[in-house]
Automatic annotation (TrEMBL):
Chain spans, region Disordered: 1-24
Organism: Frigoribacterium faeni
Keywords carried by this UniProt record: Monooxygenase, Oxidoreductase
Residues covered by the Acyl-CoA dehydrogenase/oxidase N-terminal domain: 41-144
Annotated protein name in UniProt: Alkylation response protein AidB-like acyl-CoA dehydrogenase
Keyword Iron-sulfur: no
Amino acid sequence: MTDLLSSPTADDTSTLDPATTAAPARSHWTGVAAEDEIAHWSAVASEVAAVLARDVLERDRRGDDPTTELDPLRSSGLVTLLDPASLGGGGAHWQTAFRVVRILARADGSLAQLLLYHYVNVANIATSAPASERERFYRRTIEGRWLWGDSVNPVDPDLRLTPDDAGGFRLNGLKRFSTGVSSGDRALVNAVVDSGDREGDVIAFVIDAHAPGVAHLGDWDALGQRQSASGSVRFTDVRVEPTDVLGALDGEPFSTLITAAIQLGFGNLYLGLAEGAIAAAREITVARPNAWFLSDAERYAEDPFVRRLYGDLVSRTAAVEALADRVGALFDVETAKGDGVTAESRGALAIEIAKVKVVSSDLATDATSRVFEATGSSSTRSSVGLDLYWRNARTHSLHDPVDYKKLEVGANFLTGVLQPLSLYT
């Protein structure tokens, strides 16, 4: 089992199994991200974040699906960051992708979420598609700079795939929380086959997000993450070609890293929201004149209670950042094993990810609320927009109950038990 208490560097492969890392059978991801790779893509993400920040409040107030604002994600290369370099992709690692999501979330939580889901959705090529088909899927995605949304929400009844005489299927059903489908180019869909030789199989496939029979219902009306394009989608006799199929979902350990990736992505999303709120609040606080009339300080930035508040939030944020970076490197180590991933090593990694989810979720909801204590009542004006961070954090942190992540960590600590595999674990 991988030692999940170690923190490998780009040159440290001592925790990797040479038999699986020298020529991994399952994917193009090898080793862990080097510092220059992380630095390069972090700089790219910072530039894109600066562009998104210019009108993020205006776009949030409109709450419509993003369109042209997705262009910087495409033109910068961020949408193909994790794809094979040999086919024209960025050839980067997951640790780098998580950092990119975090940086974007500091400016725009909605588009950071869309990019995170895209990374996880496209990764299904490596985890579910046969080796002979991966190049075709990757080439089309890279050349088209496609953004993948998804209709895989497991709390809804499964969509139905009905075999047809041409060797494909017809897709029918409704999926809520289909993030990115209405604004993206392709939709990753999971559905159960309702008849024939494959009856009962759950199949992952990719279709045109705007194909005939795909209806975007536009019913996303949440408190936050208002541009995450997370509305419901209804599928009516949508044609699914045999060439659209990635493969069946069978719970094989390497393929289940997909759900681990999105949970760690959530942790980085929440961390980025906290960092963005603290940075925005600092600007407001430093610019505030005078001080509270009972204070001995001349300005709010010199008030000991204000300084204590920031000292607490900044310190906690630094701790969460360190944990997120450590676990990001561990994720690269596990992914690099390819077919060497085991249920035990994958489960141990999931515990580390749960720790990130617990502390980042708590930090985000707390920090994005408490910053108002330092910025004052004037910072609650709609034109200031400081509320955006709290609304985004509060909305997305309800994706799945963080209390169950605390239970996972506690149960493992006390008895060594691992949670049963699910689409939330």
